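Can you give me the bound-state structure? Components:
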Amino acid sequence: MKRLSDPAVKQSLATVLQVLMLSLVWLLASRLSHAYVPEIPAGVLGMFLVLAALALGWLPLAWCKSGARWLLAEMLLFFIPATVAVVQYPQLMGSIGLRIVLVILLSTVLVMTVTSLVVDAGYKFEIMLKRRKRQHGAL
Amino acid sequence: MENLLAFGCLVLTLVLYWLAKKLYRRTGNWWTAPLLAVPLLVIGAVVVGHIPYHTYFQDTHWLSWLLGPATVAFAIPIYEQRQVIRKHALSLSCGVLVAMPVAVMSSVWLARAFGLSELLQKSLAPRSISTPFAMATASSIGAPPDLTAVFVVITGVAGMLLGELMLMLLPLRSRLAKGALLGAAAHGAGTAKANELGAEEGVVASLTMMLGGIATVFAAPLIAWFV
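Here's the bound-state model for the whole set.
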């Protein structure tokens, strides 16, 4: 039997508590979103609340870090149930399904190309700006 | 009996996820990637076992519920990477502001060109962002969130397969562009790939993914008007 003082046990206990805390924030955010700002989804509202609390120093990073890391690392598990819903749409089998996959492949190639070329150009511009600033500083 | 079956579905999902994750870590084969293998195996089991979806979802909806807290959890990496955001504010915001309209509009236009229904056009629109953001956007534009989740997963697999090829074909100089390519086009799956390339690529990919997700959620009224 492992003791509570065991560092590994302590760590997992902390993770569980932090996941519970983030879940509470989410519940609070869904109440708030429902009552005041239905345009903003609860998750995003909760994220901004936590971000504000971190930035203002109300919430120490160490109090939520391991819980957040766990939630984000296992996120794939959380959306598997939603993907199984595809069994409710048998009409997606066959030609329509094939067309959907084609749309996704083509659009993905397009997004990859445009985004990376724009970011590369933006990066070169950033470097140029930095260089100009440095030259001004030297003068 | 139905309760037992529902509980069995939850256990099956957890066990398959755990096994696939272990196997993928050991072998690294793309077809053992949990993103691809677990949904396929679970869907296979549900179809073969003639399990109604509401029975499958009865207990597994707790897993779906955790997507909410997971969205909240995005605050922590964003806060931790605030220096990178500040340093590359220009390129990151250009990337996000270009990637999101391209992703949404090309999905909708291509779907329309291929003669897919309006419902499918709507469900495809937010497919390139992280699942919780995509599902939130889907419900605010009137698309079934579960259908969007399926398209998000297909996008992730597509990004995993196409990412390397596109990185070879495109004349990219900066690590920043490589990370943005993966994060903007293939959300979490792309970010995982970017982490294999290097730490900077990984950080930029995850930032592009998160900021893109938030931007798309806020653009939902625009998307609804567009579709």
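A couple of observations. Residues 75-226 of chain B form one domain. Chain B has two domains: 2-65, 75-226.
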